[in-house]
Specification:
Elements: H1 2-14, E1 31-33, E2 38-43, H2 51-63, E3 67-70, H3 81-92, H4 110-114, E4 119-120, H5 135-140, E5 150-154, E6 157-161, H6 176-187, E7 192-199, H7 217-220, E8 224-228, E9 233-238, E10 245-249, E11 269-274, E12 279-285, E13 289-296, E14 305-310
Parallel strand pairs: 1-5, 2-3, 3-4, 6-7, 7-8, 8-10
Antiparallel strand pairs: 2-12, 5-6, 9-10, 9-11, 12-13, 13-14
């Protein structure tokens, strides 16, 4: 981001009429919330005003989750500050604590009243599409650490939100971000560790596998990996890691893709994939287990898929 800001500063020296957006410093300290058990929702590829997202958000509200995490593409199509209220804020402001956001974009509601953020996004490729890069995203949210990637702890789970890059081209395994992830996970004492970001390491759908994000998450201590980018729901296990799941969750409200566009080799992967309707994940965790479920908006009582991991 420093290089990006520097570019605009030089640009504006030659074109004084230009209007550059600068990052508002609204980082928050590391968040640690103690609880014996937690319930949280997971959405991806959702940030588009309309009935699908409205129904997804109402389903999530009915779960009364402690918080929400997102798997990217929070603001279609171009990640502009001018569209973030209609694409995101009108549905989820009750969960967002962003007191330092630009004027007209500060949320009110439960999170604001509690002064406790309950919404933890990760960056998607559409969030990069603004002429100001991801500055609107960074200015809207008040996130821990460096904000582009960060961690927080809630109950028995340690969460790690990564920035997989504009094209899923984040570097491993000597980059600052990957070194931070490896060291922080190895030092974590929480029962479960969830890593989440936008570009899926493995996917049977339109975009297929993203090799740049096939990091050694499990050996570093992760319990599961969650991603979006492909607009399906999928749970993937490699043949030698049946207790470790890669989730693809991109049915939050934008559009729907096909499950069989890039089939994974059955000799190396076990795959469940769903493409029929919009939905979200409901996850419950305590000290003994974490249960992942995906629900679609036309049946809020019967999970499409369920996976339980015990510790």
């Amino acid at each position: 981001m420093n290089k990006f800001i520097g570019f605009f500063s030089v640009f504006c020296l030659f074109f004084p009429s230009c209007k550059k957006m600068e990052i508002i410093s609204n980082q928050t300290p590391p968040l640690v919330v103690e609880a014996d058990s937690i319930t949280f929702a997971v959405i991806g590829d959702y940030g588009k005003e309309g009935d699908p997202l409205f129904l997804v958000s109402k389903m999530i509200d009915g779960w009364n989750p402690d918080f929400i995490i997102t798997l990217g593409d929070n603001n279609y199509p171009d990640g502009k500050l001018s569209t973030i209220n209609k694409n995101l804020g009108q549905y989820f402001c009750d969960y967002i604590y962003n007191p330092d956001a630009p004027e007209g974009h500060v949320c009110s509601g439960r999170a604001h009243n509690d002064k406790l953020n309950r919404f933890f996004p990760s960056i998607g490729n559409h969030d990069y599409n603004s002429t100001d890069d991801i500055i609107p995203y960074l200015n809207y949210f008040s996130l821990p650490g460096v904000e582009e990637y960060y961690d927080f702890q809630w109950g028995p789970v340690h969460f790690f939100a990564l920035n997989s890059g504009r094209q899923g081209d984040s570097e491993c395994c000597t980059s600052k971000q990957s070194t931070w992830l490896k060291e922080t996970m190895e030092n974590s004492e929480r029962q479960f560790k969830i890593v989440y970001f936008h570009h899926a390491p493995y996917s049977p759908s339109n975009h297929g596998n993203n090799e740049a994000m096939q990091w050694d998450f499990k050996s570093w201590g992760a319990s599961a990996v969650m991603s979006g980018h492909d607009h399906v729901y999928s749970r993937i296990h490699t043949s030698n890691q049946q207790d470790f799941a890669y989730f693809v969750n991109g049915l939050g409200g934008s559009s729907m893709y096909n499950c069989d566009s890039n089939p994974l080799d059955e000799a190396f992967f076990d795959v469940f994939c769903y493409q029929e309707n919009y939905g979200a994940m409901l996850v419950k965790a305590n000290e003994d287990q974490i249960k992942f479920q995906f629900f679609q908006i036309d049946d809020e009582n019967t999970p499409v898929d369920e996976f339980i991991l015990t510790k």
